[in-house]
Structures are given as structure tokens and as C-alpha cells.
UniProtKB/TrEMBL annotation:
PANTHER family: AMINO ACID PERMEASE, AMINO ACID TRANSPORTER-RELATED. GO terms for cellular component: plasma membrane. This is Unannotated protein. It is a multi-pass membrane protein. The keyword Transmembrane helix applies. It is found in: Cell membrane. It holds the Pfam family AA_permease_2. GO terms for molecular function: transmembrane transporter activity. Keywords: Cell membrane, Membrane, Transmembrane, Transmembrane helix. The chain crosses the membrane at residues 12-37, 49-67, 88-110, 130-149, 156-179, 194-217, 237-257, 298-318, 347-371, 377-405, 417-441, 461-483.
Length: 497
């Protein structure tokens, strides 16, 4: 039996929060992004950069959740943009969103495969290439995604609770110990320290990495159709998810600064992350060495396993998000009708299969070309994903203002002030991300050091193709919608329902 509606009542606030926090992969961010934000960015003030970005996204959520009370659709972003700016713009945003979710999932497959290859070779002398482990994860993720969504939520729930507990426990132990210099809140959270170096320099780099660490929070509304009361559940889940991610990153990164000493942060990060004299060759070494020092090697061992499970949880979360976007486009007539149907378990099976096929084809292509899972697939795809999602978030903020100007029904704060302010703040973030794309993705011309302020906007040919791909996808989607008037009629009905 198939249906054109996702089954209601499968998810509550906690279930959605698990999916969203899983998508942010906090342990991966703490071991991968935060050390880079410290060393190449604003040093001891990296925790403040994460806090600032969290506040910007909370501001975005004011208008986002206001719109969620008007529109309940599993393709949330495109439905919101379509309601406010028209169906053609909605389809354009959908194409950009699909680029975001597909690329971030591909990035996680690359990271998962690379880490598993290293762990299994070191621990059990099982020497397999990164793509072999990535394909094992691919099989499991595809199977779970074809089951009822609440099965996936239960799996994620266990993994995320363990991950968050490990990070909070480690942070609290370090903060209680006080580190070599004690807790220096001013060094980490005062505005003059957060924005040291300016947007073109250290502050911009730290903020760019912070934005990248939050990708996935906006997926709360995607699961609205699968709740009993989306108008109540989606706003609560959104605020809870952003709050948890913000607090987790800010507190844990502050504990890392405290454990190393704010005045010695650059030397300490280099020493703890270097391999054969190369800084940041092993960024996870920063958190792991601090955990060894302050908590014990037993916690480090747990964390090394949880990094893998964190990546797997992210894969499952984005697989669900991808498949629901395809479902919404199928039901709206943009994709073939079979994409708008669910299987007996209530899962959008055609979307799951298409998402998996795309992932497999790309992974096989990277493997055949001899490219690395982490050095190439992870860094290239994650950089594209964060550009795409912030671009769409800006469109959503503009659409919120446009919708409520036409329809009314909300106060000035929720309908105008917050979404306009968030659009401006997100535009600044997008500029920073694009200008520092060479550092995020490692796509620089020969002889250019991407960590230097003067290297902003210096990209090689591949870098320009990657950084522009979300905008190209949006243009293709817009033109597709303009040409396909019949499909637009179905889409209008879906957006307005």
C-alpha cells in the first residue's frame, strides 16, 4: 500500500531534535572544525564565534517558525519560499536545498569511510580503502531509511544521548579543574576578541567554520507532516535544537580553551594537532589529548567510537531529509509522481532510493579517480553544502517578510524585524563563507596560502565551480519551473495546502 501523505504521529519534539542534533554531528565538529577555527581563526575567542552564530540562527528561527504555523510541508524551505516569493522561486530554492543535503551527506560518507579505514587498520589490522567502509554504511543507512521514520529516530536517540553526555562530561571536568590559567570568559566571549582580525581575517574564518557546524538545524520543519501537531512541535523542536547545539559547541569549545590556557591557545593547538610537524594534520588530537589529560583515556576511547557513530547518525539524518525533499517535489509534480508516494512503512521509498543511488555513484566516481574520502570528498562537499543552505535561509527570511506583508496575521517582530535582521546577518555569513571557501574546501591556486587575509576570494577553477554550484542549481530550478506550467499547478496546491 502506498500513500501521498507521510504518516502522522511518528515523531514528537524529542524525535525531531534527535534528527537535527544528529545532522550537526557535534562530536565531529568539536574534533574537526573547532581546532581549525581556533588556529586559523580567532584563537581563544572561537567559543564566542559559535555563540554569535547560534544567536543569528535563533533570530532566523523567529520568522521560520512563524511561517511553520502557516505551512506544513515536508519540503519546508521550498514551500515557505514558494508561499512568499512565488512557486518559481520555491522550486529554485528546492533545487539549491537538494544540493545542500546531498553534498553534506556525501561529505559525511567521505569522513566516515576515512575514519573507519584508519580505526580498523590501527585496531584490528583490517586494511580496506575508505570507500569500502562508506559503502557498508550506505547499505545500513538505506535499509533503515526504508523503514518507519521512528525506527531511525530511536537509533539516533541512543547515539546522540551518548555523544552529548560524553562532550558535556568532558567539558565540565575540564572547567572544574580550571586549566593552567583558569576560566577566562573575556578572552572567549568579549566582542572585541570575537571579531579580532576582522571579517576578512581571523574572525571571518572562525565564523565561517561555526556556520558550517550548524548545518542541518533547519530540518525541523521537514518532519512537520509526521507529527501530531506541527504548529506546536516544529517551533519547539527548532528552538530546542538550536539551543542545544549552541550551548554544546560554546561550552565544550570554551572548556578546550580553558584546558589549554587562553594565552597559549595557538601553540597548544599546534602541538596537540600536529603529525610529523604538520599543524592540524590530526585536529581530533586537540580534544582527545585534553580528554586524556583531564578525564582519562577511557573517555578518549569512548569518544573515538562515538565519532564514528556521530558520523553514522548524520548520514541517517540527511538521508531522511533528502528523501523527504524528493517526496515533496514528487507530490508537487516537479518530479515523477512515484516520488510523492510512501511505502507500507510510511517512508518515501523512491526518494530514499534516489538519494542512495546518487551517493553511490559519486562515491564510486571519487574512488575510481583515486580521490581521498576526507581530503577531497569531505572538504569539497561540506563547503558546498553550507553555502547552499545559507543561501536558501536568506531566501526564506525574505519570503517570510513578503508573505506577512501580503497576508498579515503576525506581529512586527516575527513578520518583519527578526526576518529582515536575520537576512542581513546571514548575508554577511554567506559572504564570509564564499570569501573563505578556499580555506573550507582547500581549493586554492598554486602557491596561495588560504589562511592569509589577502587570499580571500582566490580560488582555482574547481573552487569556482563548487562555490557557484548552489546558485547554478537554483537557476536551473527556476527555469524548470517557468517551463513546466502543468507541474506548477500541482506545486501551488501543495504549497498552499
Amino acid at each position: 500500500m502506498s500513500d501521498t501523505q507521510l504518516k502522522k504521529g511518528r515523531l514528537g519534539v524529542l524525535g525531531i531534535v534527535f534528527f537535527v542534533v544528529a545532522a550537526s554531528a557535534p562530536l565531529v565538529g568539536m574534533t574537526g572544525a573547532v581546532p581549525v577555527a581556533m588556529l586559523a581563526g580567532n584563537g581563544a575567542a572561537a567559543p564566542g564565534a559559535y555563540l554569535a552564530v547560534g544567536l543569528v540562527l535563533l533570530l532566523f528561527s523567529v520568522g521560520y517558525t512563524a511561517m511553520s504555523s502557516r505551512v506544513t510541508n515536508t519540503g519546508a524551505f521550498f514551500a515557505y519560499v514558494g508561499r512568499g516569493l512565488g512557486t518559481n522561486a520555491g522550486v529554485a530554492s528546492a533545487f539549491a536545498s537538494i544540493v545542500a543535503y546531498i553534498t553534506i551527506q556525501l561529505a559525511i560518507y567521505g569522513f566516515f569511510g576515512g575514519l573507519m579505514a584508519g580505526e580498523m587498520a590501527a585496531r584490528f589490522s583490517i586494511d580496506l580503502p575508505w570507500y569500502a567502509w562508506a559503502i557498508v554504511a550506505w547499505l545500513i543507512v538505506t535499509g533503515l531509511s526504508l523503514l518507519s521514520v521512528d525506527v531511525g529516530a530511536k537509533v539516533l536517540g541512543v547515539l546522540i544521548v551518548l555523544e552529548v553526555l560524553a562532550l558535556f562530561t568532558t567539558a565540565i571536568v575540564i572547567l572544574v579543574a580550571g586549566g593552567p590559567e583558569g576560566m577566562n570568559f573575556g578572552a572567549s566571549f568579549s566582542p572585541d576578541q570575537i571579531f579580532v582580525g576582522g571579517f576578512a581575517g581571523g574572525a571571518g574564518i572562525a565564523i565561517a567554520f561555526a556556520f558550517a557546524s550548524f548545518i542541518g538545524f533547519e530540518a525541523t520543519a521537514i518532519y512537520g507532516e509526521e507529527t501530531t501537531n506541527p504548529k506546536r512541535v516544529v517551533p519547539k523542536a527548532t528552538y530546542w535544537a538550536i539551543g542545544i547545539i549552541t550551548v554544546l559547541f560554546a561550552i565544550t569549545s570554551f572548556a578546550m580553551v580553558t584546558g589549554m590556557g587562553a594565552s597559549k591557545i595557538f601553540d597548544e593547538v599546534i602541538a596537540r594537532s600536529a603529525v610529523e610537524g604538520v599543524p592540524l594534520a590530526n585536529p581530533a588530537g586537540v580534544l582527545f589529548s585534553l580528554t586524556d589529560q583531564y578525564v582519562g583515556s577511557w573517555m578518549t576511547q569512548i569518544m573515538s567510537v562515538l565519532v564514528i557513530s556521530s558520523l553514522f547518525a548524520g548520514l541517517l539524518a540527511f538521508q531522511n531529509a533528502n528523501s523527504r525533499y524528493f517526496f515533496a517535489l514528487g507530490r508537487g509534480g516537479v518530479l515523477p509522481k512515484r516520488f510523492g508516494m510512501t511505502n507500507n512503512a510510511g517512508a518515501p521509498s523512491a526518494g530514499v532510493i534516489l538519494t542512495s543511488v546518487i551517493a553511490l555513484v559519486v562515491m564510486v566516481g571519487f574512488a575510481a579517480a583515486g580521490l581521498d574520502g576526507i581530503g577531497n570528498l569531505f572538504f569539497w562537499m561540506s563547503a558546498v553544502a553550507v553555502i547552499a543552505i545559507i543561501f536558501v535561509e536568506i531566501l526564506v527570511s525574505i519570503a517570510v517578510v513578503a508573505h506577512f506583508m501580503k497576508e498579515g496575521g503576525e506581529n512586527v517582530w516575527r513578520s518583519k524585524v527578526a526576518p529582515i535582521a536575520s537576512a542581513i546577518a546571514l548575508a554577511v555569513g554567506l559572504y564570509l563563507l564564499m570569501s573563505r571557501f578556499n580555506l573550507l574546501a582547500g581549493t586554492v591556486p598554486e602557491g596561495v596560502d588560504p589562511s592569509l587575509p589577502e587570499s580571500a576570494w582566490q580560488l582555482n577553477t574547481l573552487g569556482w565551480v563548487l562555490v557557484l554550484s548552489p546558485f547554478i542549481a537554483a537557476l536551473v530550478g527556476y527555469l524548470f519551473a517557468v517551463v513546466n506550467k502543468k507541474e506548477n499547478a500541482s506545486l501551488v496546491k501543495d504549497i498552499l495546502s
